[in-house]
Design a protein that fits this description.
about 30% helix; 21 strands; five-stranded parallel sheet; alpha/beta; FAD/NAD(P)-binding domain
Amino acid sequence: MTDPGDVSEGTEETIGGEDGEEARVSPPRGREAESGRGHTIVVGAGLAGLAAADRLAEEGERVTVVEARDRMGGRIHSVRGWGDSAATLDVGASWMRGDENNPLARLVREIGVRTAVFNRSTETAYDPKGRRLLFDRHRRNMEDVNLLHEHMYWDTVGATPQESMEEGIKQALYDANLVRARARDANEIVHRLVEADHGADADQVAFSAVAALHEFSGDDVVFPDGMAQVTDHLARGLDVRLEHVVRSVSHDDDGAAVHVDTPRGEEVLAADRVLVTLPLGVLKAGRVDFDPPLPDDKRDAVERLGNGRLEKLFLRFDDVFWGDAEVLVHLGTEEGTWFHWYAGQRVLGAPILVCRNGGNAARFLEGWDDADVVGHAMASLRGLFRKAPDPVDHLRTNWADDPFARGSFSYTAVGSGDGDRVALASPLGGRVFFGGEATEIEHTATVHGALLSGLREADRILTL
C-alpha cells in the first residue's frame, strides 16, 4: 500500500501540476532491493539526501527517504509564481559557485536546467552618502579586495585554529600597505563578503577557512526557473515520505531504525542502515536522539563547528527605477545591512531587488517585523534613489527560526577545523552514516558540497 506521505505514485500517468500544468509521474525506483543489496533509510530530502538516494536506487538498493517538511528540497526552496508575477524565487540556496568542472554543473546540464549570470559589468557602487562611485574608483576597490584575499591566503600558512578571520584581515591590510580611503573601503567589502560567505562575523570565523575551500572556475550562476528542479529530478520515482519528523535514530548489530512522527501518529521504520543528512543547526539543537549516543568526537564536532545565518529580502516593484545595473553595492550602511542588492529585471524577468544579509546584519534585523525590515531597506535604497517608490510585494526569509534548518549553512568557527568535519562524516559501525555540506572539507556551505557529500556516502554504502 502506498504511504500517504509518499510523493511518488509509481505510475506513468500524468497528474495535475502547479498552476494547472500537467506533470508526469516517474516510474518507481528503489522500492525493492536487488540481490546482494539492502535497505537504506535516508533522513532528509535535501540535495545531499536525494543525491545519495538517487545513486543508491540506481545501484539496486532499496531506499526510503523521510522528510520532516511538507515539501522536498530542504534548504533549497523555489517559490514559483510569486504573487501576481511569473517570477520564481530561490529563497534558500540559489547560487552554483563556478560552472566549470563542477559536479553540480554536470548534473544541471544533464537535466537541462536553465541558468543565468548576473552581469557584473553593470555593477554600480555608492558611498555612505549615496553618491555613485566613479567606475575607476570601484574597480580599484575590487582590485584592493583581491589583493587582500591574496595576502590572506598566504598568511594562513601556519595559522592556528584559534586565529580568526578578523586577525587575518588586519594582517593583510598591513601587508598590502593600504591606507586611508582605500583601506577603509577594502576592509568593509572584505567583511561583507565574509559575512555572506560564512553567515557569521569575521571574529567568529577561523582564519584557516580562507585556504580550506576549493573553488571551481567559471561563472557563478543562478536558476531563473528555480534550483528545486535539481532536487525534483533526483527524487523522481523514489519513496519520499513527507511530514515524517525523525525523533530518534537507533542501531545495533542487526540493523538500524528511525522513530518518526507522521500525520498518522508515531511509527518506527527499520532498515539495514540509516543515512543522516540533517543540517548542522538541527544536530546542534539536539532534537534528534541517537541510541547508542553519538561518540564524543562527533558531539564535539557538532558543538565546535559554526552554524551560519544568511537571510534574504525580496522586494518587487511596478517598474525598474535603478537603471540597467544588475548588482548594486552600498558602502557604509547601518550594521552592514543592505550592502549587496541583486536586480532581477533580466535574470528573473520582473522588477525585483533581492538582498542577502549575513552574520551581524542578519542578527541586527532579528526580531523585527516585516514592515520595519522593509522600511529599513527602503530607507537605505532611498539614500541611493531619492524617489524610489514603495514595493508592491515583499518576501523575507527566516532560516534561523526554521525548526528543520536552524540556520543557513555551516562555517569553520574559531577553534574548529577540518578534523571536526571528518569526525562529523564518520559512520557508526556500518549502520549509521552522515552527509550534508557540513561534512565536506573543501566544499562546505555550498550546494555542490551537499551533492558531493551525498554521493560520497552512497558510494561508501555500496561498498558494504
